[in-house]
Structure formats: C-alpha cells, structure tokens
Design brief:
Layout: E1 3-7, H1 12-23, E2 27-32, H2 35-48, E3 53-57, H3 65-75, E4 80-85, H4 100-125, E5 131-136, H5 149-168, E6 174-180, H6 188-192, H7 196-205, H8 209-221, E7 226-228, H9 231-242, H10 245-256
Parallel strand pairs: 1-2, 1-4, 2-3, 4-5, 5-6, 6-7
The chain binds NADP nicotinamide-adenine-dinucleotide phosphate.
Length: 257
C-alpha cells in the first residue's frame, strides 16, 4: 500500500488524521518534534490497524527541514501518495507586541513548509496512480482576525494556494483539498495563548479532532477543493462573507482582546 505522510502527527488533528488514514489501510509516515509522542502514536496505530508506520522527529521551523523530510522519504523509497500538511500553530495578541522571531517561526511553519513540501513532493505524488494533498487551514482564513493577525493571514494564504494548486493539477493524478477546522479540542488554543474569553467560548463549540479528521479525509477522497468542518463553522464563514468586513473584523477582534 502507498504511504501517507502527515506533518504534526504527534497529537491533535494530525494524530487523528493518521488514525483515519490507517483505517483506510494506508501505511504511514509521521513527523513532528516530539519523538516520544510519535512513538506512542505509531505503537497505538500499529496495534489497532495492520499497517506499517515510520516516524521522523523533526523541527519543521528549522531551515531546510522540508528538504530533510523529503530526503528521508526519497532515500527510503517510500511510495508517498498522500501528503497532509497539518503542522501549524497560532499566536494571539497585538502584532507589535509579539516577538519578531515567533512571528517568523509561524510564517515558516504555517506557510513556507506546506509550500515547500507541495513543491518537493509533487514529482513523487505523480508516480502513484492516484494521489492527494490535504492542507489544513482554519475558519480564521475566511476573514481578517485582529489579535490573531498573522495566523489568520497565514491560513488565508493556505486557502488561496490550495485552491489555485488544485486547478493547476486538475489534469494530473493529484487532487488537492483544503480542510478548515473551527475550534477543535486540541492544544492549539492554549499554545496560541488566546485567553479565557475565547477558551470558554471554544469549550461550547469545540469539535473533537477525530470528527474533524473524518470530515477532512472524506472530503479528500471525494476530491473536494475545500471543506469547512461542522455546520456552525460553515455558518460562521457564510456570515463573514455576507456581512461587511469592518463589522466582522470588529466583532472577532473584540473576542480575542
Ligand atoms: N485546534 C483548533 O482549534 C484549530 C482550528 C483551526 C485550525 N487548526 C489547525 O490545525 C492544525 C493542527 O493543529 P492542532 O489543533 O492539532 O494543534 P496541536 O494539538 O497543537 O498540534 C500541532 C501539531 O503540530 C506539531 N508541530 C508544532 N510545531 C512544530 C514544529 N516546529 N515542527 C514540527 N511539528 C510541529 C505538533 O507536534 P510537536 O509539538 O510534537 O512538534 C503537533 O503534532 C494546525 O495547522 C492548526 O493551525 C487548529
């Protein structure tokens, strides 16, 4: 069976996607920074499904990390037919108060790495009968979000990049899907330092990573360009499209302040 490569597979949505793809009988290549969590995920998956799992601990925010990941796959002749660009993190607060180095790390992980991996892996993906790219975006891509400034802009990039790439690859064996989760029960919000107001609201609307992963993988196999996880999140994106930008920006900005 061809391999599915998943970034940020040590926990959260990426780990849930790994389980989902193992359920579809894919062999797996997992990467993230935490070697112990990757090993645990690999053992859990192997116990539950009869698939092969390899993992590579790697900090993708380091320069040349994408090339290292590609070399690992190429040198081992892993026949990759699914690329899931999931690793990402958020930063909340005033743009001018966030360390420039943190902002650069976010741009590296959320924008540069998925772009580099798509570019590096397309030739490998073309060698398989049918291949898929699944890029993990966010509902924050559907409007500018003050106090989540660079994060929401990074996800808007992923949305536009994925849709354009899907068209460019429409005559090939590669289908591109962009999955936008809304609040999901993972470590993301805590690590993004979003504050109590957002955490309390997220508790009411949080979806499980398993549900988000199932929606994303279903959309990927259906070759859909874009999917927003869950009805409430779809409604939110529709309202953001319908209402004046300045109203939407003021409302979301108040929430994160
Ligand atoms: N949770 C939400 O509410 C939500 C909503 C919309 C979109 N998303 C998006 O969904 C994706 C997954 O996030 P999540 O919610 O599952 O968050 P999470 O639980 O924090 O997981 C993030 C994953 O990315 C990995 N990662 C972080 N920094 C990394 C680095 N420098 N190098 C390599 N791997 C790194 C983490 O593993 P290590 O720490 O082991 O490296 C982990 O596996 C992200 O792109 C996020 O922006 C999340």
């Amino acid at each position: 069976m061809p391999y599915a490569l998943i970034t940020g597979a040590s926990k959260g949505i990426g780990k849930a996607i790994a389980f989902e793809l193992a359920n579809h009988k894919y062999d797996l290549l997992l990467t993230a920074r935490s070697a112990d969590l990757l090993q645990l995920a690999a053992e859990e998956i192997k116990k539950q499904y009869s698939v092969t799992v390899h993992f590579l601990p790697l900090d993708l925010s380091e320069l040349n990390a994408s090339q290292k990941l590609f070399n690992w796959c190429a040198e081992n002749n892993f026949p990759v037919s699914v690329l899931v660009n999931n690793a990402g993190f958020g930063l909340s607060g005033f743009f001018e108060k966030i360390l420039l180095s943190e902002t650069m790390d976010l741009l590296q992980l959320n924008i540069l790495v998925p772009t580099q991996l798509c570019r590096l892996f397309i030739p490998l993906l073309k060698q398989q009968t049918q291949s898929y790219i699944l890029n993990i975006c966010s509902t924050s891509a559907y409007q500018a979000v003050p106090m989540l400034n660079v994060y929401s802009a990074s996800k808007a990039y992923i949305l536009r990049f994925s849709r354009a790439l899907k068209h460019e690859l429409s005559d090939t064996n590669i289908s591109v899907t962009c999955l936008s989760p809304g609040p999901t029960d993972t470590d993301w919000a805590k690590n993004a330092n979003v504050g109590d107001k957002v955490l309390k609201m997220a508790d009411k609307f949080n979806m499980s990573p398993q549900k988000v992963a199932a929606i994303g993988i279903r959309a990927m196999f259906k070759k859909r360009a874009e999917v927003i996880a869950g009805f409430t999140n779809k409604l939110g994106a529709f309202m953001a499209w319908l209402l004046p930008d300045s109203f939407v920006e003021k409302t979301t900005g108040k929430l994160y302040k």
